[in-house]
C-alpha cells in the first residue's frame, strides 16, 4: 500500500530522518551536558527510546528534535542524582595518567571540560543551556521547571566554581616585573 503526501509521517520515518539529519547535533548537545562521549551516545539513544518508545505518529523533525533534547536533559539530570552518591567516593578511584598536549588550545579545552565535569548536574545543565543553546534565563527556567532566581543562582555558582578551578598560577611562569 503506497503512502500519499497527505499521510502523516510514520514515527519510524521521523526517527530515521532525525538521526540522519540531526544525530550529530544531538550527540554534541548530549556530550556538552554529560562531558563524556560514551554517556552522550547513551543519552541520545535513551532519549530516542523514551521519545519514540510508544507508538507516536505526527511528529515533524523539529518537534521530534525538541522532544529528544528535552529527554536528553531529563535523563542526564536523573542520572546525575544517582551519580552524586558515587562522587562521594570517587576520590578513591585511580585515574589514568594523561599525556601532556603541546597544543595550548587543547589544554584549555581539556581544562574547561574538566571543570565542567566537576559541576553539579543542574549547574552544568544551566551552563550548557545558557552558553551552548543560547537560552535566556527565563527559557532555562521553563526548560528545567525551576524559578528564574534558581537559574541565576546555578549559573552564578557554576561560573564561580569554574573560575576558581581554572585560576591557577603556573610555577614556571616568572614573567612580569619583579622590581
Question: How do you describe this structure in short?
Answer:
With 179 residues, the protein is mainly alpha-helical. It contains 7 helices and no strands. Helix 1 packs parallel to helix 3 and helix 6 crosses helix 7.
Overview features:
179 residues, disordered C terminus, mainly alpha, 7 helices, Arc Repressor Mutant, subunit A, 0% strand, 2 domains
Between the first and last Cα atoms, what is the distance in angstroms? 86 Å
Mean pLDDT: 79
Q: Which residues form runs of ≥5 with pLDDT under 50?
A: 169-179
- What does the overall shape look like? globular
Beta-strand content estimate: under 5%
Major pleated sheet: none
The count of helical stretches stands at 7
Characterize the structure shown.
- The protein is mainly α and 179 residues long.
- It folds into two domains: 7-85; 106-169, Orthogonal Bundle (Arc Repressor Mutant, subunit A).
- The protein is 67% helix and 0% strand.
- The protein is built from seven helices and no strands.
- It has helices at 11-34, 37-52, 61-87, 104-118, 121-131, 137-144, 148-166.
- Helix 1 (11-34) packs antiparallel against helix 2 (37-52).
- It is globular and about 50 Å long.
Amino acid at each position: 500500500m503506497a503512502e500519499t503526501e497527505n499521510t502523516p509521517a510514520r514515527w519510524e520515518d521521523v526517527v530515521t530522518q532525525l538521526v540522519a539529519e540531526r544525530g550529530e547535533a544531538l550527540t554534541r548537545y548530549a556530550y556538552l551536558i554529560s562531558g563524556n562521549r560514551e554517556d552522550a551516545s547513551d543519552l541520545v539513544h535513551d532519549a530516542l527510546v523514551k521519545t519514540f518508545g510508544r507508538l507516536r505518529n505526527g511528529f515533524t523533525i523539529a518537534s521530534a528534535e525538541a522532544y529528544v533534547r528535552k529527554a536528553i536533559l531529563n535523563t542526564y539530570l536523573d542520572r546525575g542524582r544517582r551519580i552524586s552518591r558515587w562522587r562521594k567516593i570517587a576520590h578513591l578511584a585511580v585515574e589514568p595518567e594523561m599525556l601532556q598536549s603541546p597544543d595550548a588550545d587543547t589544554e584549555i579545552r581539556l581544562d574547561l571540560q574538566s571543570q565542567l565535569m566537576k559541576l553539579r548536574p543542574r549547574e552544568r545543565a544551566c551552563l550548557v543551556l545558557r552558553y551552548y543553546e543560547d537560552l535566556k534565563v527565563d527559557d532555562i527556567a521553563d526548560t528545567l521547571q525551576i524559578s528564574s532566581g534558581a537559574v541565576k543562582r546555578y549559573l552564578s555558582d557554576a561560573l564561580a566554581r569554574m573560575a576558581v578551578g581554572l585560576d591557577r598560577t603556573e610555577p614556571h611562569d616568572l614573567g612580569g616585573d619583579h622590581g
